[in-house]
C-alpha cells in the first residue's frame, strides 16, 4: 500500500508502486471531476450570455467578500494600531457600447455593514447599477 505524508494544507505526497499511485490518483480525480465540469460549464454559459447581450441589456457579475480588517494608526497612541472590519462588494457590469462591442465597467463598494444577508448585497448592487445608468444611458 502507498504511504501518504502531509506536506501542507492541501498537498499530500504519495509513495508506492506506479500501480498504487495511479489507483490513488484515479480516486482523487473522481472527487474533483464534477466540480471541474461545473466550473467549465458555468464559464461557457456565462460567456454565451455576455456574447449575446442586446441593446440596453446588462449582466452583473459580483462577489461579496466580508470582514476585511483595515489597519489605521491611532493618532493619540502612535505605537498602537486599531483594526476596523469592512465588507468589499466587487461588481463587473457587462454591456454593449455604442459601437456594438462588448464592454465592461468594474466597481468596488466598501461598506461597514458586516451582516451576511441579501440586504447589503442588494444595496451595493443598486449603487453600481444606478451609477452605470446615470453615466451610460
Give me the secondary-structure topology.
Blueprint: E1 3-6, E2 12-15, H1 18-51, E3 59-73, E4 81-96, E5 102-111, H2 118-136
Antiparallel strand pairs: 1-2, 3-4, 4-5
What structural keywords apply?
137 residues; alpha+beta; three-stranded antiparallel β-sheet; two-stranded antiparallel sheet; 36% strand; flat
In summary, what is this structure?
With 137 residues, this protein is an alpha+beta fold. It has helices at 18-51, 118-136; strands spanning 3-6, 12-15, 59-73, 81-96, 102-111.
Distance between the termini: 66 Å
Order of helices and strands: EEHEEEH
Gross geometry: flat
Number of domain units: 2
Q: Which spans of ≥5 residues are poorly predicted at pLDDT below 50?
A: none
Describe this structure in words.
This protein is an alpha+beta fold. It folds into two domains: 3-46; 53-136, no CATH class. 39% of the residues lie in helices and 36% in strands. The protein is built from two helices and five strands; from the N terminus they run ββαβββα. It has helices at 18-51, 118-136; strands spanning 3-6, 12-15, 59-73, 81-96, 102-111. It has a three-stranded antiparallel sheet with strand order 3-4-5, with helices on both faces. The chain has a two-stranded antiparallel sheet with strand order 1-2. Strand 4 (81-96) and strand 5 form a beta hairpin. The longest helix has 34 residues, at 18-51. It is flat and about 65 Å long. The mean pLDDT is 84.
Amino acid at each position: 500500500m502507498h504511504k501518504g505524508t502531509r506536506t501542507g494544507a492541501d498537498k499530500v505526497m504519495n509513495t508506492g508502486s506506479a500501480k498504487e499511485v495511479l489507483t490513488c490518483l484515479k480516486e482523487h480525480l473522481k472527487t474533483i471531476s464534477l466540480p471541474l465540469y461545473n466550473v467549465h460549464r458555468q464559464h461557457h454559459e456565462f460567456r454565451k450570455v455576455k456574447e449575446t447581450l442586446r441593446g440596453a441589456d446588462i449582466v452583473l457579475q459580483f462577489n461579496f467578500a466580508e470582514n476585511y480588517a483595515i489597519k489605521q494608526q491611532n493618532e493619540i497612541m502612535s505605537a498602537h494600531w486599531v483594526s476596523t472590519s469592512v465588507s468589499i462588494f466587487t461588481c463587473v457590469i457587462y454591456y454593449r457600447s455604442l459601437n456594438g462591442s462588448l464592454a465592461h465597467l468594474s466597481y468596488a463598494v466598501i461598506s461597514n455593514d458586516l451582516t451576511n444577508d441579501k440586504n447589503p448585497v442588494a444595496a451595493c448592487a443598486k449603487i453600481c447599477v444606478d451609477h452605470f445608468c446615470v453615466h451610460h444611458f
